[in-house]
Amino acid sequence: MSQWYQLQQLDSKFLEQVHQLYDDSFPMEIRQYLAQWLENQDWDHAAANDSFATLLFHGLLTQLDDQYSRFAQENNFLLQHNIRKSKRNLQDHFQEDPVQMAMIISNCLKEEQKILTSAQTLDQGKMKD
Questions:
Q1: Distance in angstroms (rounded) separating the CA atoms of residues 11 and 38
Q2: How far is Cα of residue 87 from the mean position of the Cα atoms in its chain?
Q3: What pLDDT score does 24 carry?
């Protein structure tokens, strides 16, 4: 089960913490659409390696293109628009510094894991009571 799916099952107080992780520089909709792909990449390595970060940056753009094509097949004009806008924003923000993007994604994934861990710890504490 993906980390992203697990997060969506949490109580609203934990979901609020997840909402705070995402903004226009790395929008939640990209996290949603590309959850499995994002979780399968080594963002820590990319955050320390410019050429690997560039490779993942272009991989991310390709994934967004693929998602755009899926939305086009579904005739989903609004989601096509949103994915194009997100792709443009990522290019504007990170084309010259893909390491920065890798650092942001790496941090988001780590913070998500912390949120999951604290939710699980709370659940275990409730079960003992």
A1: 23
A2: 13
A3: 82
Give the C-alpha separation, 67 to 81, whole Å. Answer: 11
CB neighbour list of residue 116: distance below 8 Å, 6 or more residues apart = 3, 6, 7, 10
Distance CA 116, CA 15 (A): 10
Task: Report in angstroms the alpha-carbon separations of 38 from 13, 19, 54, 106.
Answer: 24, 17, 15, 9
> Considering all CA atoms of the chain, what is the largest pairwise distance in Å, rounded to the nearest integer?
53
The answer to whether the CB of 61 falls within 8 A of the CB of 90 is yes
Low pLDDT (below 70) residues in the chain: 125-129
pLDDT tens digits for range 99-121: 999 999 999 999 999 999 999 88
